[in-house]
Amino acid sequence: MFTTSTDILNLVLTICLLLLTFFLCLALYNLIVSLRRINKVTKIIETGIVKVEDVVNLAKEKLRNSQTYFMILAEVAKRAIDFLKEKKANKKENKKKKK
How do residues 16-70 score in pLDDT, each as one tens digit? Predict the structure, then answer.
């Protein structure tokens, strides 16, 4: 079967090349699987970030609307207090005029 040492060398080189190819394919497969997992995780994180961003934007809008309403209410309350002060001042003036 093997007549010379070159035949044995060629057989050993062939086996080594096959093993090297097998391990390279296995490493490439593991790399591809890892990259797919990383891709899935990044997509999940991205959707989570988008959802959080939507919630933050919604909260900002609610806060802006609430702030506007509070400003309006504060202005109304201020004018009501001013009106009551004027009315009270007018009553005091009317009492002084009557005396």
Answer: 999 999 999 999 999 999 999 999 999 999 999 999 999 989 888 887 777 777 8
Structure tokens at 64: 């802006």
Phi, psi of 42 (to 5 degrees): -65, -35
pTM score = 0.53
Measured distance CA(84)–CA(96) in Å, rounded? 18
State how far the Cα of 53 lies from the Cα of 46, in Å rounded to an integer.
Answer: 10
CB atoms inside a 10 Å sphere around CB 96: 8
Residues contacting residue 2 through CB under 8 Å, at least 6 positions apart: 8, 11
- Give the integer Cα–Cα distance in Å for 31 and 39: 12
- In the numeric block, the tokens 């997509």 are attached to 43
